[in-house]
Specification:
Elements: H1 4-20, E1 25-32, E2 40-47, H2 51-54, H3 59-76, E3 81-86, H4 89-111, E4 115-116, H5 122-132, E5 138-143, E6 150-155
Parallel strand pairs: 2-3
Antiparallel strand pairs: 1-2, 4-6, 5-6
Helix pairs in contact: 4-5
C-alpha cells in the first residue's frame, strides 16, 4: 500500500528522470487512482515536445512506463501498478478506441457481417473487449498470433 510520502518520492524521481533526459517538462502530476486502490499510481506528464517520447503508436511511451515502473518499484521497495500518460496521449487513444468499437459494433449489427480490426497490442484489445462486453447484439474475440493478433467483432444471432 502506498502512502503520500511514496507518491511524493515517485513524483520527485519522475521529474529527475525527465530532467536527465534533457526533456523540458511543463508539468508533472502524480495521483493515486483511488483511496481503495492505493497500489495504483497515475502519472501525467506534460512536455513541450512529446512526439519523441510517445513514439509510433505509443510504443516509446509503453517502454518508458515499463522502465520507470521497474526503477520506482526498486527504489521504493514496494510493488504497485504504474500508469504513465504523456500530454494526454493515452486518454485520447482510449477514447478513440472506445468510439471505434461502438461504431464498428453498430455496423456489425446493421450488416450482420463480422468486422476485423487491425492488429493491436494486448492493452488496446482489452479496451475494445471491455467496451463491447455489455452489448447483447455483438461478441468480440481475439484472433491471430503475436504482432498480428487482432479483435473481431461478431454479430450475435
Amino acid at each position: 500500500m502506498l502512502e503520500q510520502k511514496d507518491v511524493d518520492k515517485i513524483k520527485e524521481a519522475v521529474e529527475e528522470f525527465f530532467e536527465k533526459m534533457t526533456t523540458k517538462t511543463s508539468n508533472v502530476e502524480v495521483s493515486l487512482l483511488s483511496e481503495e486502490e492505493r497500489d495504483v499510481v497515475n502519472l501525467s506528464v506534460n512536455l513541450e515536445e512529446p512526439q519523441i517520447l510517445i513514439g509510433q503508436g505509443g510504443q516509446t511511451l509503453i517502454e518508458i512506463q515499463r522502465l520507470l515502473r521497474t526503477v520506482l518499484n526498486k527504489k521504493l521497495q514496494k510493488s504497485f501498478y504504474f500508469n504513465l500518460d504523456i500530454n494526454g496521449y493515452k486518454q485520447q487513444k482510449i477514447e478513440y478506441l472506445k468510439d471505434m468499437a461502438r461504431s464498428l459494433a453498430d455496423q456489425v449489427v446493421l450488416t450482420k457481417e463480422e468486422k476485423i480490426l487491425p492488429p493491436m497490442s494486448a492493452y488496446e484489445r482489452r479496451i475494445i473487449h471491455a467496451e463491447l462486453a455489455q452489448r447483447t447484439d455483438v461478441a468480440t474475440e481475439s484472433r491471430g498470433d503475436g504482432i498480428d493478433r487482432h479483435v473481431v467483432v461478431i454479430p450475435k444471432q
